[in-house]
Design goal:
single chain; 505 residues; alpha+beta; Pnp Oxidase, Chain A; UbiD C-terminal domain-like; 9-stranded antiparallel sheet; 12 helices; 23 strands; globular; binds flavin mononucleotide
Amino acid sequence: MATTDAPDLRSALGMLRGAGELAEVTAEVDWNRELGTVARETLRRKGPALLFRNIKDYNGPDARCGQVVTSILASHRRIALLLGLDPSIDNRSLVDYVTRTNRERVTPKLVADGPVHENVLLGDDVDLTAFPVPHWHHLDGGRYINTFGAVVTKDPVSGIGNAGVYRGMIADRDKISMLLVPSQHWGRHWAEYLRRGEPMPVASVYGWHPVMDFLAGSPIPRDVCEYDVMGAYLGEPVELVRCRTVDLEVPASAELVVEGYISPDPDRYRLEGPFGEFTGYVSDLPTPRPTVEVTAITHRSSPIFRGTLEGSLPGASGENSYMSSVQRAAIAWHALTTAGVPGITDVYVHPVTNGTTIVVQIDKVNEGHAKWVAAALWSTGAALYRYKYVIVVDEDIDPSDYSAIDWAIAYRVRPGSDDIVVFPGTFGSPIDPSTPLEDRSIADLGSGLWNRMLVDATRTWRYPPQPQWGGARFPPTVAPAPEDLDLVRGRWAEYGFTGWDGGPR
Ligand SMILES: Cc1cc2nc3c(=O)[nH]c(=O)nc-3n(C[C@H](O)[C@H](O)[C@H](O)COP(=O)(O)O)c2cc1C
């Protein structure tokens, strides 16, 4: 039997509540568009995680599930808290912690039974609409049940499990149509099932400790099961139970699990899309796609449905944006280290780009250093949806500061030179609206096609040293001399400034 105080969604929510990072919404809210709009407006106001407890059509005495939680990971502060870190930790330390912990493993533990099997629905009792799955955005093609659900599959050859976040829409009371991209890890499993002409077993887990979402939504290497990494983050083995109708394992204290199979027969595909995607656009067209045919639903008593409002908008980025800003920076840093690229001093992903743009700060060791960085990043599988723009800056540019990046681009980049390099026709995102539709056909191309760009915003070494610049190749800046600054800061109080913030900068 599962341990009663093992980490799960409820323990995480308790922690967030205690830290003032969870708002419980008791006013009635409609699952149809209103809930998603409340989430967007809360993101814009930089608000807390939201637990909706009074959802229209799901607040009667017979409701199977009456609660939805969202926006758990929508701030660096909450991500740090949930990882057991100081909530005010700086980017470099947070990214460093994640880079290291992504590489640690704690083997999960199989237990005989757990709360997720308190309720088991089979046959005619299977009804996905019994759960308050939001219609998140008015242009979505339907009710998206898989937004932050971890989709569990197993490699039929190696037997290694995978948990990934892949979107899915309720296509019927017992069907979920999915965006199944062949180059994702479950896509590789799917390729083997297609070859064999067999249905692929799938289990979607909605609601467990948020480290599950944090890792399932990030590219952990294919030969590693995300459960092993979740255990490393939690400092204890993840307790798993066997599913009831598919040969897969899920966390014993998950809130809700949907089990089923995806048939290889294209006649059984159902329409999927469009969906308000992480790009901030509703750029996909409804397309018949692989569909989970549900064989069982299992859930805790009084389950909490876990979902997320996708889509970055300037000033109102969501959970995927914040977790990607940490994970995509950590994965990039690891890739750079593994490729032997020296002198990496910081890696920053501005949440609104989700990692489509990445800024790498270097202590430059050679004139080709920025190209080395870009080549290493573009050669990783993690670049599928990310790293379209790689901006490389020197050690004096804070990569989290847009004005510093802008200044570096303004005066360290020479358009028309190889400071800007375009790498055309690479594998890339099928949901980027800047790419023409024919270049993002997964069916034809296997992925989208991306032209990528490196902006080398470091000071060039190509200019000859100038004696007037103390032998440097690039001119000095207007920053005060350290001794002048020391003098002025030492005398600051004597200048008698009042009525404005005259404190030291
Ligand atoms: C909220 C959220 C939604 C996502 N939706 C999708 C999706 O619909 N399809 C997809 O291929 N990847 C999606 N991703 C990205 C994948 O989860 C990510 O690429 C991850 O690495 C996939 O797992 P894998 O590496 O084990 O394949 C999403 C990520 C997040 C955080």
